[in-house]
Amino acid sequence: MHKYLPRRCRNIKPFIAMEVLERAQFIERQGKKVLYMCVGEPDIPPHPAVTESLVQALREGKSSYTHSLGIIELREAISEYYLERYKVSISPEQIVVSSGTSPLMLLMFSLILEKGKKFILPNPSYACYPNYVNFLEGKIVDFKLKDKEQNYSEIEKLLDKGVSGLIINSPSNPTGEVLSKKELGYLANLPINIISDEIYHGLTYEGDEETILRYRDDAFVINGFSKAFSMTGFRLGYAIVPKRFVRVVRSLHQNFIICAPTFVQWAGITALKHYKEIIDEAKKIFDSRRRFLLDGLKKIGLGYWGNPKGAFYVLVDMKFLGKSSIDISLMLLERYNLAVTPGIDFGTNAEGYIRLSYATSLENLEKALDIFQRVKKSNNE
Amino acid sequence: MHKYLPRRCRNIKPFIAMEVLERAQFIERQGKKVLYMCVGEPDIPPHPAVTESLVQALREGKSSYTHSLGIIELREAISEYYLERYKVSISPEQIVVSSGTSPLMLLMFSLILEKGKKFILPNPSYACYPNYVNFLEGKIVDFKLKDKEQNYSEIEKLLDKGVSGLIINSPSNPTGEVLSKKELGYLANLPINIISDEIYHGLTYEGDEETILRYRDDAFVINGFSKAFSMTGFRLGYAIVPKRFVRVVRSLHQNFIICAPTFVQWAGITALKHYKEIIDEAKKIFDSRRRFLLDGLKKIGLGYWGNPKGAFYVLVDMKFLGKSSIDISLMLLERYNLAVTPGIDFGTNAEGYIRLSYATSLENLEKALDIFQRVKKSNNE
User: Taking CA atoms, what residue in A is nearest to B227?
Assistant: First the structure.
């Protein structure tokens, strides 16, 4: 296989969370009931007003190409949202709307990372980040996070002339940790490009939540509607880019994406109109699940990574099984029909852990905890 | 600016058709009426059953992530469509559904073209092709098409060990020409990778229309719902890839796109159920406009490229004005509020031409012809 492929494609790894999802869907089609805790996907339905505004836009014939950066009405609404929530002023001209955040991430990395140069990725972090670097033929610089204490100040040791940038993600997938103001301020002052993946914003259950743009106006920000707004399958995301990159971002987007779906952009405006209500509701639900899950894990005697205060993930320590995280995930899926994501998907540092997504009902969490108890018990026997 | 940018982004040119559209929309917001003949966008509304099935899918809660290759029901429907229309058998496993064809094009080029290697692009052809090659740091090999006769057999002169692939597009944007069976068979036999961009399929007004897969089963095919199905803003496209590339395509898609919007995928199934009706209707409408426009141009004494038998474009020869095609387009937009695309957007070989899209009413075509007559007359005075 490899001999057919250009170098950039040879190290692209599957996104294992999606692989597990696809395998679980296959098992389900064979008549079994699967407990899904693998994918970062809220089980809360999208707000009815959002759905209805999509229907209305579609019925009004809003299904033509839009401006490649997105309809101005949505970009203005995003600008107002950042002003109201975070007190930062962003021009709608700096915003590019796309079909989810994933293609934008590729564009952002491609604007910063020259082939052969280095990019700092926290370990563990979102499974797809290394693949952006690999595709662009950059070099990954591994920044090993510590489990019980945040060690961002150690990042300075990794900086040298060959480093193009750093990506941060707070609240974090897969650890659920949230950067403090002090940490965010420190990172914003590093003399490199920073991409701040803010896709889990809105889902912070303890303490404040701040955009990097409060500390630095030339950061690249990624955000969207999938997580806090429960709109995964709508595929609606956006990036905020420094002014000097707007012209080239627009060209790249015209060529490689054209524009996000039109009626979905109109639904995005409605989502922002209702943001307080939507986010408050989501926070309340996820926070109660978080407490329930963390309590349950403690009772069983299972450890987990750090201090999960945001997003909807817990990285559970399964090292006691003495198996690889992929083997543990396969065992849980095939034997218990429980779909989870192996820690290794997020970096070597999370090997021996599995990631649980608590974007599922308390009832399901109870079932999952019961499975973990059985796994723990049978291991002790 | 350039010094900030990685090499791959330095030669990315704006997609001028989109630039003209964006400028025209700006003029329109100032209260003027613009005649749009710039973008490849059908003015026919999407079929009501398609719209309604999207609404239904959305109301049924079909808004979660799907399999990264797309829902199996749509991939099966696409497979059946290629079997019924073209008598070719494609496994649903070889199909990847995405948010329009543009991101798929980037993936296809990235699978074939190693950095520094060559890729053959017909000149003129779709404006974005060179940007895929530039982004991947390949070298463009320019294959100059001839105006009145098709000269594909000359392509063999360009083949050498450094050439990775060739892209073809029939019916063609911007010339409207359609490859004959003989030409398609000849091209399919070339000893290089071939991407066949079949996005204008369904819109061939004279003669047959065949997929390259009739002649070669390891070609890369790009197709989608934007053009013949009038679903531009839905952003729904697909690629058919050779079996040995499926695994890597799936990984790339999981990482860089995740999946196409869910409810839009369900609407795609409905579109294929009604394909005969939808395509026949579109063909009838566009063909009558094509005849009207070509007749009108002949009457005015304006020449055009080749033999436009498909898609909805005519490349009109404006060399008599002795101006660059960009200047001509700007003049038509600012003076007559007529939006067209400059030929140079499609390659040096189309300089001096402008591209008209006849995806607009006969009434508008009449107005446009009137403008051309005035331009011609004032030039003669």
Answer: A64
